[in-house]
Specification:
92 residues, mainly alpha, Arc Repressor Mutant, subunit A, two-stranded parallel sheet, 2 strands
Length: 92
């Protein structure tokens, strides 16, 4: 898949592509994986700008406190919940 975005967005989105179905990572986990541990907010912003959802599965990224956060794809949070249930992360 050919992605278009800023260099930072592309780094974040490529990292998101590594998250296995049925699992989640926090914005902070992604920032640490990018070797930018203080960039949690920037990671969250890159997720919010993701035009490729759900192919770039930003629904697998949640807040550090366990809350689901938002979802940039069509249907917003309702769709995020539906996708996470389908993948078995959330109970049906």
């Amino acid at each position: 898949m050919k992605l278009k975005g800023t260099s930072f967005q592309l780094k974040v989105w490529r990292q998101i592509l590594k998250i296995a179905p049925g699992t989640v990572k926090s914005y902070k986990n992604l920032a640490i994986a990018l070797k930018m541990p203080k960039a949690s907010r920037a990671v969250a912003n890159a997720c919010s700008q993701n035009p490729y959802a759900p192919k770039v599965p930003c629904h697998r990224v949640i807040r550090t406190d366990g809350n689901l956060g938002g979802y940039s794809g069509p249907g917003g949070l309702k769709t995020k919940i539906k996708l996470l249930k389908k993948e078995g992360y959330l109970p049906k």
